[in-house]
Amino acid sequence: MAKERGSAIIAMALLLFFLLHSETTHAATFKVGDDDGWRFGVSDWPNGKSFKAGDILEFVYNRANHNVAVVDKDGHDSCTVPDNATVFQTGDDKITLEKGENYFICGFTGHCANGMNLAITAA
Description:
Immunoglobulin-like; alpha+beta; 7 strands; 26% strand; 123 residues; 2 helices
């Protein structure tokens, strides 16, 4: 019985050690466009940044003038919002990145063509 108790104590000590010394992964939050927010010409904003699945993009904008549509590559490249696309319109939207390619455009006429679009790869 004492031997079993000793084994349990060692197992708990090892578990505690691993919990305290393991790296925890936290999602990062990125404000799209930094202080300027979701705006014309923001398409280069991701350059030089690293994104992971689970990271959060915060889109801040005037909701009377813009929105954020989650699209696929074709929608991004053609600046078209498909009928089944998720469209955010609050002016302060937080969207979690999925692993792989993530595409966003402003669905207001002409805005995507003027640089309100993002293509982001999340590892």
